[in-house]
Amino acid sequence: MLEHSTHHGYQIHLADAVYEPAEDSYLLIDAALNEIAGSNRRLRILEIGTGSGIVTAAMMRDAPEHRYAATDISPHAIACAKANRVPAIRADLFRGLRGRFDLIIFNPPYLPTAPAERVDGWLDHAWNGGADGRAVIDRFLGQAPAFLADRGSILLLLSSLTGIETVCEHMASVGLVVREVASIRCPGERLVVLRGSLSSK
């Protein structure tokens, strides 16, 4: 069942089985809007793991001139994102997609999660990052460069609990130039957004 709510100034629909926007969502919104600010061309933008769709919905509201697409593995998330007018399809990461994108955004499940800490249902996909927090991130980085346009970039959100330096090394190993573009401190962790690009722009 969808409920209407206001989050960080955004009116969105939420559902029980979908990740509720939090500090990481808002950090990624700010980083994404900064990334596309002042672009003099129409960008193709893809969000992986869109959840409620709040990140793409915010971009569509503030930068409607670009072309947007989103995916999520959860059918509940897809229903929620569509209710928020996000053009979303159900997919495991990039499965079934074609073409290349100027910007790919991902707020992955990044929390290190032991088997005993798993939760039942689709919400487990929203935060279960495997034993080291990087299980889904590693899969994403193995696939993302093939979907980037020339001069394309990714924005990847993760936690200090995930191993930021290790993720940076993995990004560099797949040919991405990496830099940190946003961060906030939360109780017990630091959240960061890493930008990986096919050029040093």
CATH architecture: 3-Layer(aba) Sandwich
Going across the major beta sheet, what is the strand order? 5-4-3-6-7-9-8
Distance between the termini: 43 Å
Cα shape: globular
Q: Strand count, sense and closure of the main sheet?
A: 7 strands, mixed
* CATH topology group: Rossmann fold
Count of DSSP-assigned helices:
6
Structural class call reads alpha/beta
Low-confidence stretches: none
CATH H-level superfamily = Vaccinia Virus protein VP39
What is the N-to-C order of secondary-structure elements (H for helix, E for strand)?
Answer: EEHEHEHEEHHEHEE
Text of the CATH class? Alpha Beta
Mean pLDDT: 89
Number of distinct beta strands: 9
Q: Which radius of gyration do the C-alpha atoms yield?
A: 16 Å
The total domain count is 1
Helix content: 25-40%
* Share of β-strand residues: 25-35%
Care to describe what's here?
With 201 residues, the protein is an alpha/beta fold. The protein has a single domain, classed as Rossmann fold (3-Layer(aba) Sandwich), CATH 3.40.50.150. Helix content is 27%, strand content 31%. The chain is built from 6 helices and 9 strands. The chain has a 7-stranded mixed beta sheet. Strands 1-2 form a two-stranded antiparallel ribbon. A hairpin with a 2-residue loop joins strand 8 and strand 9. The radius of gyration is 16 Å and the shape is globular.
